[in-house]
Amino acid sequence: MPLSNRQSAEELNPQRRLVRALLDSIRAYQHHKSRSGAIAFVLRRWARLRYEVLSVLTGSDVGIGARFGTNLRLPHPVGVVIHERAVIGNDCMFMQQVTVGMLADHRVPTIGSRVYIGTGAKVLGGIQVGDDARIGANAVVLADVPPGATAVGIPAKILGPKSREGAVRSP
Length: 171
Known about the structure:
This protein is of the alpha/beta class. It folds into two domains: 8-58; 65-171, UDP N-Acetylglucosamine Acyltransferase, domain 1 (3 Solenoid), CATH 2.160.10.10. 26% of the residues lie in helices and 19% in strands. The chain has helices at residues 9-12, 14-33, 38-58, and strands at residues 61-62, 67-68, 81-82, 87-88, 93-94, 99-101, 110-111, 116-117, 122-124, 128-129, 134-135, 140-141, 150-152, 157-159. The strands form three sheets. A five-stranded parallel sheet has the order 1-3-6-9-12, with no helix packed on it. Strands 5-8-11-13-14 form a five-stranded mixed sheet, with no helix packed on it. A hairpin with a 4-residue loop joins strand 13 (150-152) and strand 14. Helix 2 (14-33) runs antiparallel to helix 3.
């Protein structure tokens, strides 16, 4: 079958369609929130209603005020919690049961682009996760993660970026 006639993985997987619709409803709400007038009010309410229903259907809690770049992927969205003030870059992937939230200091993480966060990881507090970083499964990240580094463990320890030979260097 020619490539143009094939359905994409997103079209074949109803869960992916639900996640895409959830993220689109958040973007729509944020867009209409910046507008005024009766039409913007109705569209904002409609986006909020869609958001609430899709949050229940996907089993995730992505704050309606969260700012995220293009192509945020939640392949298994159940249990994903993203604080409404979190900032997330482009092309990130969060697995199931990931929490991006705040500590008692009321600051939230900023996540760079192309970041992978493994199953059950917790990214907490006013930290920066650099571009191309990886966070291992069940890691509890409470400190900044430099670009290209890997964070693993409880509390997370930072491993340096991969060298050209593929070995991991510790700082």
